[in-house]
Amino acid sequence: MSRQATAVQETDLEGGVAPELGGADLEHAQRARPIPRISIQAFCEDENSAEVLQEAAEDRRLSKTHVSIHMGGIGAAIAHYQENPTPNLIIIESSLERSDMIVQLDHLSEFCDAGTRVVVIGHANDVLLYRELLKRGVSEYLVAPITPLMLMESLSNLYNSPDAEPVGSVIAFIGAKGGVGSSTICHNIAWSLSEQIKTNVIIADLDLAFGTTGLDFNQDPVQGIADALQSPERLDEMLLDRLLTKCTERLSIFAAPVVLDRDFDISGDACDVVIDVVRQHVPFVAIDLPHTWSPWVKRVLLQADEIVITAAPDLANLRNAKNLMDLIKASRNHDRAPRLVINMAGMPKRTEISVKEFAAALGVEPLQVIEFDCENFGQASNNGQMIEEFSAKAKAAPQLRDLALTLANRKDARAEKKEKPQSGGFLQKLKLKR
Q1: What is the pTM of this model?
Q2: Is the dihedral of CA 390, 391, 394, 400 positive or negative?
Q3: Nearest CA among 303, 33, 335, 21 for reference residue 155
Q4: Is the pLDDT of residue 401 over 60?
Q5: What is the mean pLDDT of residues 262-267?
């Protein structure tokens, strides 16, 4: 490994970063959706349970909630609510036997306001107890020990109807350095999602002064995302439809105004409101973030479901990508690590860090390494087209398509056909259509 790459690798944060999710944890993470603005009060008996609740409270999915954690279990809860109103949700931990727990919960119910939900954490895998609790209106019974992701999934199920359409996945794109092609990657992946999966996608361009979404799709919108950010409380389905610019049957853009005679004072709260409204209407929202660092950029980045960092293979990009990776991993213990795309590799006459050294220094393998191709990318940009539109034979075209399918947790239908050529025709076609 080169001396420069080694130097960057040695700048790891103390204490390490979150491990990569896998197996059951990944399934819980994918099913746990953001919790609305509610108040939660927990009464624990065990210190480990209190730590789990505190860890969950710090997760992005509970960022809108107000959580307070107390010790003392159900007895402390009864004493507290004799003198105080109940919150939206009470979490009770109890190691009592079935009959004693039922009696205590019946006593607690005398002080609960209408509409308050109760989740019980018990220490017995008791089906009869579970049925008794449900009869009494308890929303959920969890058997200790629990994990933060198990708890978050359970709370998500309480406040997100299983019958309702799931909120859209937010994918944030940011460059490790200006000019590395993060916007190009974002736009091409969003276009591929809409074309390959045949699903609706919205690109939100948050680079208000210099955004290129309109140019890349050969559009010149009069209104866009700045209008929504200035009055986020007014944004509803009708206004959203007026502010969006339709590029294809399934792809729309929330374009940046790209003007320098206006100052835009963006707040994190306004971004939250706008993104929440947008994700209610489409399965995927691609956020094109500017290469700048401010509280609202950090907030949007850390709140996203998936993060894609685009970097060129040089020392400045390596340093910045390392800083981003460390911050994101340390702040998002229960999410997948950021995805890395190395772009413009093999640029003539440029001294580069090898992909192997780059990946080793960051501790993450790149999802794709896209070679420098000024002819195809430049001409596609000038035409207002995506790479696969301009030239399906371009080397980057299948790479960008694979990136989109990976971020959507899908496999390429063509690859599936190759893997299972012996499968029974008609039924296999039905599976692929799904």
Answers
A1: 0.79
A2: positive
A3: 33
A4: yes
A5: 86
